Give the backbone structure.
Amino acid sequence: MTTSRATPRGATGSARTRAAREPRPAYECDACGHQPPKWVGRCPECGEWGSVVECTLTGPTVSGRVVSSRMPAEPARPIATISAAPAKARPTGVAELDRVLGGGLVPGAVVLLAGEPGVGKSTLLLDVAQQWAAGAGSPSLVVSGEESVSQVRLRAERMDALHDQLYLAAESDLGAVLGHLDAVKPGLLVLDSVQTISTPGTDGVPGGVTQVRAVTAALVSVAKERGIATVLVGHVTKDGQVAGPRVLEHLVDVVLHFEGDKHSSLRLVRGVKNRFGAADEVGCFEMHERGISSLADPSGLFLTRYAEPVPGTCVTVAMEGRRALVTEVQALIGATVAGSPRRTVSGLDGARLAMVLAVLQRRTERLTLHDREVFAATVGGIRVVEPAADLAVALAVASGGLNLAIAPHLVAIGEVGLTGEVRRVGAVPRRLAEAARLGFRLALVPNGCGPGASGVGAPENMQVIEVADVRAALQCAARASAE
C-alpha cells in the first residue's frame, strides 16, 4: 500500500524560488562565445569541436529587477570646465607609429596591435618600449607570455635596446602582471600577447573568449585608473581578423593591424579604430637585421629604374590611408593556350584584373587576350586593391600585349568602368603632387579631375591630361612614347 504525503501549501512556490536563486548550469563556446541551450560536441556557431564548456550563471535575471540610484564617484561637470591636458598624446619616439596613433600614446589609452605570426609585432613594440624609456621620463614594462626574458634580451641586444628604464617580465597570470605594475610603476605597458594571459577566477582556457574578455576588461580598468599607456598584442585568425571575441575591439581605444609579406622587408601599420585621431592612417616600416625602422618616404621601394623603357609596365599613385604612394604595376602576356588561360596576380585584386581584361578585349581592336595567359603584379610587396589603379593596369597589359613601352615619365590614375570609361577617383591633387615630387612629368587622369576642376593648379613641370575612356588613354600613352 502506497501512502502519499501531502505537500504543504506554499512549498511549491518556495522550491521554485530556491531553484531560481541556486546556480544553474549553462554552456558557452570557448572559441566564439556562443551559448547553446545544452551541451553539444560541436559549436553550431563557429563549427569548433570540443569547445563547448559548462559555465555557471548565478542570481536572478536582469529583467524584472529594480535598479536603484546611487551617489556617483564624481559629479557631472560642464564640458568647458574639463581640462584636456590628461588626454594629450605623448610621442613614442617611433615617427611612423606616432603618425598612425595621431601624435603618440595617450596616458591611460589601451592599444590593440594585431598581426600574423612572424610579421614583427614584438620587434616593433620592443623598439617603442626602448624609445619610451629613453625619452618619456618614466619606465616602460614589457610582459611576455610567449617568450622567456632571456629570449627577449637577445632581441633587445640585437636592436641596441638595453636601457635602464626598460623592464622585462615573463608572466602568464594576470595577478602577477598587476604585481609587476605595482612594483615598477611604468608609464607604458606592453603585453605580448593578451591571448596568453589568464586569471584563475574566470572559467575557460587561456586564449578562450571568456578569459580574453576578462583579462582585457581588467587591464583597461587598471590603465584608466593609473594613467598607464597600454599596448596589447593580439593574434589573428586565418581570415586576418583579430582572434577572440568581437567585444575585444570595442573595449580598447585604438585597434592597429600590422601587415607585411614575409618575403619583403616592407611592413605597414594600418589604423582600424582610433578614438584620439584619424582611423585611416598608415605607417611604413622596413625590417632589417638590427630590427625595424620607420620609412618616412617609402615610394622609392615600389618603383624599378630601367635604363631603357620596358613594355608591360605602368606607374600609378595608390592611397594608403592619407598617404600617396607611387607604385609600379607590371604585366606579362604569355603564349596562346587552349582552354582556360591563367590569370595570376600578386599584390592586385584578381577580380578587377579580370574585369580590366574583358574591357580591353571589347574596347580595343588590336589586342587579343581571351586565349592568352596574363600575369600582373606590383613592385616592392605593396598590395593595391583600390579602383584608382585600374587605368595603370589596363595600360600595363596593353603595353605588354602590343609590345609598346610606355614613357617612363608617365603616371596613370583612374577607375575603369565596364563600358571602357575612366571614372573619377579621390585625392587626385595629392596623388599628382607626390608623382611630381618624384620626377614624373605627364599624368593621365579622368575627366573632371584635372587641375582646373579640382581648384588646385597643376604641379610644377607636370602636364595633366584628362582622358574619357581607355581608348583615349592608350592613344595618349602611345603619343607620349613616340615623343
